[in-house]
Please model this.
Amino acid sequence: MVFQVLADHGELFPLAEAPGDDEPFRSGKPALVVVVAIRRAVTRDLVDQQFLEGPPLIVAVAVHRIDHSEDARLPRLVERASVPRTCRSPPITCHQTLSPDKAASLAQSDACIIAARDMAAASTHILSAAIVPGVCPAYPHRLKKVVRRTTMDDTLSIPSPDGPIPAFLALPEGDGPAPAVIMLMDAPGIREELHRFARRVASAGFVCVLPDMYYRLGTLRFDLSRRDDRMTAVFGAAMASLGHERVAADCRAILDALDADDRVAAGPRGLVGYCMSGQYVLAAACRFPERVAAVAAFHGVRMVTEEPDSPHLGAAAIRAEMFLGFASDDPLVPDNVIPTLRDTFARHAIPHRIETYPGTRHGYSFPERDAYVEEAAEAGWEGMLDLFSRRLHPR
Model:
């Protein structure tokens, strides 16, 4: 059995399948799995869900846009790919276009990682090698494309006073309506990394909507691998175009759109905000107490300020439960912020959990940043999904 997994999209493509094998994962026959990550993260949940119960695996992970400085992290990527404990071969790294002979050799290893500059050549050669007689001899080499998804994607155009808000929508499996979560972006804006976040929320049983908060400026997209001071300055200008009144109006429009969508279950919503949007999800909980039951924020900024519209000042209205995750070293979060939030929530009897993760910096949640800390990021995911499950699912 030969598979290619597009980890960014949650899609499974069986590329060679034996006739009559209705349960290929449990067939007990050898399999070669090629995991292709468009960026450098190989999502552990995807691989675990799809392959953990399957036959003995030969795992080749081709990682696009990974530079030489990442060499030390490659063994960790193998671990995330759930390589069986019985594997004996160490990971193999190469930084050139793979020849068919080299790919064939790698394909017969117990496990390997290929970090190739030429992704198309890497994946093509590995897949070609996978169907060489002797590697998967039990299967006829008949190609068949089948797509299995744990989530579905859609797009929305949400009416608002300032024009339509474009949004990415991730939908869970199943035909019935599901509770909804609104995900508000960080400063770099909409990108595939956030789409993956939305899909992960959806895979837990929620409709997740990710609006483009910069829509008033047109369509802004950034390649963070090329980030420099000039790009950071553009982030700053884009952030400055927002503000509490604008974002509150957008949240109202999104809440209204979710209420009118028959794919969304009735009931209060969840919110999650990253970085710049920590302030906005807290403010939304204050503005829409009847419509918001659960709020999460990670390395959120400007949640407590000296301004008259500081989000924490409206906390008396909150009816949601709060889960906030902060970095232990974050110059964007002054020392008074966390104690003030704790005191404010306690004073108003707001159920809350505030975590500060040791050894982390601003942005620790994002796998494509140097600040990424997997243990802290996963703890945040666990806490957030538990919160949404308790507060949003019908009882």
Remarks:
- Residues 374-392 form the longest helix (19 residues).
- The first strand starts at residue 2 and ends at 6.
- DSSP finds ten helices and 14 strands in the chain.
- Confidence is low (pLDDT under 50) at residues 1-98, 106-149.
